[in-house]
Amino acid sequence: MGGIYCLLIKVSKPKEVLVGKLGKIKFEKGRYIYVGSAQRNLERRIERHLKKRKKKHWHIDWLLSLKDVKIEKIILFPFESKDKEEKLAYYLSFYGKPIKNFGSSDSKCQSHLIKIS
Questions:
Q1: What DSSP element (H or E) covers 87?
Q2: Half-sphere exposure of 45 (CA within 13 A, CB side)
Q3: What pLDDT, in 10s, does the model give residues 76-114?
Q4: pLDDT at 109
């Protein structure tokens, strides 16, 4: 099964993280929402995000592997197409502060990670 998903993420302490080719990013303490997709094996993608130790492949891997970062809630939209991932990230960006270029290297929107509180 494929689809799109949102991760509600809590960052307990301010962090500065080297995120792949994006370079160093400062994450303020607070809550963030990340919008992602999996064209198949949605369940496995979520399981992977929940692991602290993993090979870092996507931008979100660098953030989620940190000790003071926790996924608080997962919202699934099974069977939704990848184009809706980009639309959802775009609309959510109006309700917070997008982290520029984060998770959006294959997307036209500014970011797939938005600080919401």
A1: helix 82-92
A2: 22
A3: 998 888 789 999 999 999 999 999 989 866 667 789 999
A4: 78
Residue carrying structure tokens 């809706």: 84
3-state SS, residue 84 = helix
* Residue spans per domain, the chain: 3-115
| Report field, pTM of the whole predicted structure over 0.85 | yes
Cα torsion at 69, 12, 21, 98 (round to 10°)?
110
Helix (H) or strand (E) run with residue 98 in it: strand 97-98
Q: pLDDT value at position 70?
A: 97
Residue 111 CA to residue 90 CA, distance in Å, equals 8
Instruction: Report the pLDDT averaged over residues 6-22.
Output: 94
For 29, the token pair is 């303490």
Residue 114 and residue 98: Cα distance in Å, rounded? Answer: 4
Compute the distance between CA of residue 70 and CA of residue 63 in angstroms, rounded to an integer: 9
Query: Are 99 and 113 within 8 A, CB to CB?
Result: yes
Task: Determine contact, residues 14/26, Cβ cutoff 8 Å.
Answer: yes
H/E element holding 5?
Answer: strand 3-11
